[in-house]
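To whoever is on call:

I kicked off a structure prediction for a single chain this morning and the downstream step that reads the tokens threw a length-mismatch warning. I double-checked the sequence; it's 662 residues and nothing unusual in it as far as I can see. Pasting both halves so you can look.
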Amino acid sequence: MKKPSKKMLATFLLSTSLVVSALSFPLTPVSAADGSTLKLRLLQTTDLHTNIVNYDYYQDKETDEFGLVKTATLIKQAREEVANSVLIDNGDLIQGNPLGDYVAKIDPLEEGETHPVYKAMNLLDYDAGNIGNHEFNFGLEHLEKSLAGANFPYVNANVYIDDQDDNPDNDVNMFDPYLILDRTFTDENGNQVELKVGVIGFVPPRIMQWDKAHLEGKVIAKDIVESAKKYVPEMKEKGADIIIAVPHSGIGSTDPEADTENATYQLSKVEGIDAILFGHSHGVFPGPGYENIEGVDSEKGTINGVPAVMPGFWGNHLGVIDLTLKQENGKWVVADSVVENRPIFDAASKVALVDPDQALVEAVKEDHDHTVEWVRSAVGTTTAPIHSYFALVQDDPSIQIVTNAQKWYIEKMIQGTEYEGIPVLSAGAPFKAGGRNGASYYTNIPAGTLAIKNVSDLYVYPNTVQAVQLTGAEVKEWLERAAGQFNQVDVTKKEEQPIINDAFPSYNYDVIDGVTYEIDLTQPSKYSTSGELVNPEANRIKNLAFNGEPINLEDKFIVVTNNYRASGGGSFPGLDGSKTIIESPDENRQVIINYILSEETINPSADQNWTFAPIEADVNLTFTSSADAKAYLDQMPHLKLISESEDGFAKYSIDLSKSASE
């Protein structure tokens, strides 16, 4: 064999050292060449509302339907599936359930303490967070203390310090308006490449009305879309390769509206935004309900061509956007996208899809245990029993406390708005009224101590508060539809006549407080059980009055209700979403809790704003309720027990003669 020359040996040693060097040290990230492809997964949580643990504090039991400890399992799975990912939270984080209340009000967060939400979230290595409207509910001091515990940065581009000089040109942002995250990712060829990821966040400007007491004179909020138009070009100038918009805002109208609450649709039209992670309205997008909006692809998950995701609320879904980025003329562009929401629970089969992440469970165990102890304790006092045994046959305390709380909430919300001064009415229905759910399905809270978990007896559905603006005539039609709860009474009939229409769901029997009225059972129902107009000339609602005077059918009223009813649930005339003026993300249940906490002592006794119109004919009218209801009969001489059944129900008679009501 020929002996290698010194030159050959030197060449060999040099090449070997280069190989060893390449194996020993990571490759330096390089700028991608034209035609390069990079896949990036965006992960989003939103509207967690302090639901870190999979625990229903109202029912005082574990749940499989929500909780970040469950979403965390999906987050880890989603990360393992791809080489590149970014995780962002969209806000409404530190308020919304008893855990948030406990940390804010009962055992207030001290300087230097870490809020339990961040004890959990810091374990998940979030890349960024956005400020939601509920972050302001406990005041700026609590917000500042809470954010200090986050190991990840926050953004908000439309809240400014109020310098009170009326000069918008020198306004200073309260938060960083945007971030440009320098990240090293792996492209499809296995090369490490640098990517500058821009993240910009927004909150509804209406925080200035919703939290006026906390914010007035301290901060101001500006329009979401205008703020985006200001900062997105600046982000591009500073080198952002892609821009992720994180509006805590629902999809909103296809028509531009200044300072609107839900602005995501209009935001999607701002040039330079590559993806949108939105929330606030607690919906799931892509998904049903968005099919008929121009420019929205509810299957692919795009709004005016921009990939967008909204993953529900309370951690019940993980939002996922898979972006395919390509280099074109030295810039990264979105070539394709796949959008999905991954659920933690199969609602159809009632099956949990993931287990809780035990590291997160342990991180907040002490805070959770303290909260459970608190919700089992007294949070207020009721001076009268709260039960729903007779909710279908007379004005009822279990509805009264709900309507009182809703009215209290909305009257505060509309202060300082164009709606201030319009009379506020409040609608509520008896959710727990026996029927197919059995004789134990009634609210029954004795006078005295009231615990937070009792509120689940008063409001069993996770509805959110909404308000509609109606005329007096439309209020009357609402009541006519609700009066379908009752069978028509035949005044010539001597046999027993049950007055409750069992085919009519009790949750559709709305009582509207703030007006007085009578229901004439001798009239037929104007609407069928399913809501069709069947007797146009029928007139069950008599003597409808406001402030003691016959209601003016042309006057305007605000009626507080829930998202189900306001959007058309129950097929009520005129209620299809078009009359909605306030879409609050707050649960009716949480509003009741806040009301009790505020009042400390409540008197939920029914104000008797509605009654049945007297029937002087000799008729035998009956209804069914729990046998336990007989304990209250001594206070109600117009009601009498007839018989009890083995199933726990009982039959009662009701006297609707004029003398009985006097």
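Update from on-call: the warning came from a stale cache, not from the record. Cleared it. Sanity check on the structure: The chain has two domains: 29-371, 379-609.
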